[in-house]
Specification:
Strand order of the largest sheet: 6-3-2-7-10
Structural class: alpha/beta
Number of helices: 22
Helix content: 40-55%
Shape: globular
């Protein structure tokens, strides 16, 4: 990056006219780089009064206070190679954190008469789901059901806030999930209604009749910020911005057009409102996220630090493209007007972006929750069609080998996963085919069908053996 300060596109709308119409829960790097950028772009193109409040539930209170001290302003740096475009985002009017502001702060914000939309980036874990329904054995859910007026989970907070809206005679809300989950809106709806029904069936009925939970598909590669990232941003700005974020230039947002009330004009910022999000989310989850996981596990095992490092290796690059076109694309209902080959090639170009420093170990986190939709769903289709899936098998086997915690050269690999304790026990107690069999017994990952499939089990074991005994690049070439 150049040492000369870059031109910053500063806020050009009147922030004093903003009132809080949107609440974002789970405010972090991706929300800064995606949801808030779309919203900021909308504000630049309209005279809208749609201001934003942002919230976190657990960690991050100090970061939100730092954002308050900056008057809610932060910088987004969009990177491509050596190019860096800087945007100042000014949509945020307030921040909320229950550990800083009190347990009533967030439910009361949800009950604000001005509020119309809630967006969420709370990760898969935040929905507290099991088999597509609310996990009532989840410790946080049990605690919130016992003390619903002092909630600690996102689901508990949503229901308590909606209860206060109902009690005040206010209109319902649009609750829009922006997490990488298939049918994310339906899953969010199910968790909220299940929780509400346990408390008060009348409340659940009110939520079902007055609130909507659209599905959405989001896409923007946003690596975790590091000291080097902050230094890059400071060098470009000419001053530090600890609230800032770096990301790729590409961004996409596809939203089911089902709103309970007013709808932000996000289409002016290139968001797409559609009748059915499913074909878009399947395409993204399988081709982008599936190949990302493929590269993350195999790359980390081969001591490749970033996705761009993987792309610099011809064996990895070709394998990722082949996975997309030969194994992922055939399982999709491709949306009208989409050139799937061009989409795959565009993904490869995005992965090659050397400015991103998107770490393989970052993408490798929470594998037990990511594999089902990214890799196992298309594998099920291949098993049904009796079609080949060798690279998908390598990805699943690589996840199992990654869970052992050591790369091929002996480097330590972090296991950040909701099932890390159980996986750790399996790693300690078994190896070889016995280890694969125990991993396959994780029903949260593989369901009840795949472990009973001889074709599935034998293919994974064969792939695992190849990874144990051969150089990874050689396995990919083969």
């Amino acid at each position: 990056m150049s040492s000369v300060s870059h031109l910053v596109e500063t806020v050009d709308y009147d922030r004093t006219k903003l009132r809080i119409r949107l609440l974002h829960i789970g405010f972090g790097a991706f929300a800064k780089a995606h949801v808030l950028v779309f919203h900021d772009e909308m504000l630049r193109r309209t005279a809208s009064d749609w201001g934003v409040a942002v919230a976190r539930l657990n960690s991050g209170a100090d970061e939100l206070t730092g954002l308050d001290e900056a008057d809610g302003l932060f910088t987004v740096g969009e990177m491509s190679g050596d190019d860096l475009f800087l945007r100042q985002v000014g949509a945020i009017c307030a921040t909320v954190h229950p550990k800083r502001d009190g347990v009533d702060a967030l439910p009361n914000r949800i009950a604000d008469p001005d509020l119309a939309v809630i967006t969420l980036t709370i990760t898969e874990k935040g929905y507290c789901l099991k088999d597509g329904r609310l996990d009532e054995d989840n410790p946080g859910i049990r605690r919130d059901l016992a003390t619903p007026d002092a909630p600690s989970t996102a689901i508990g907070v949503l229901v308590e806030g909606l209860r206060r809206r109902q009690a005040a005679g206010l209109a319902g809300l649009t609750i829009l999930s922006c997490d990488n989950l298939p049918a994310n809106g339906e899953l969010c709806r199910r968790a909220v209604l299940d929780f509400a029904a346990r408390l008060n069936p009348d409340l659940a009925e009110w939520i079902e009749g007055n609130c909507t939970f659209p599905c959405s598909m989001v896409d923007r590669i946003t690596p975790a910020m590091t000291d080097s990232s902050f230094a890059t941003l400071e060098n470009a700005l000419g001053h530090a911005d600890r609230n800032g974020i770096l990301c790729e230039t590409f961004r996409q947002w596809v939203i089911e057009d089902r709103f309970a009330g007013p709808r932000p004009d996000w289409h002016l910022a290139s968001a797409e409102f559609v009748e059915d999000v499913a074909p878009f989310e399947d395409m993204k989850l399988r081709m982008l996220n599936g190949s990302h996981s493929f590269l993350a596990y195999l790359g980390a095992l081969a001591d490749k630090e970033t996705i761009a490092d993987c792309m610099a290796d011809p064996a990895f690059r070709q394998a990722a493209l082949t996975l997309m076109l030969n194994e992922q694309a055939p399982t999709l209902s491709v949306p009208d007007g989409v050139d799937i080959k061009a989409y795959a090639e565009a993904l490869i170009a995005r992965f090659e972006n050397t400015a991103l420093h998107h770490k393989t170990t970052q993408i490798a986190s929470d594998g037990s929750q990511k594999l089902p939709q990214r890799l196992l769903a298309p594998i099920r289709q291949h098993l049904k069609d009796n079609s080949p899936w060798p690279l998908s098998a390598l990805a699943v086997a690589a996840w199992m080998l990654y869970c052992c915690g050591v790369s091929r050269t002996g480097a330590s690999l972090p296991l950040n996963d909701p099932l890390s304790a159980r996986i750790g026990t399996i790693v300690q107690e078994t190896d070889g085919n016995a280890y694969v069999d125990r991993m396959l017994s994780l029903s949260e990952v593989f369901g009840d069908d795949l472990p009973g499939s001889a074709a599935f089990g034998s293919t994974i074991k064969s792939a695992y053996e190849r990874l144990l005994t051969s150089d990874i690049a050689s396995v990919l070439k083969a």
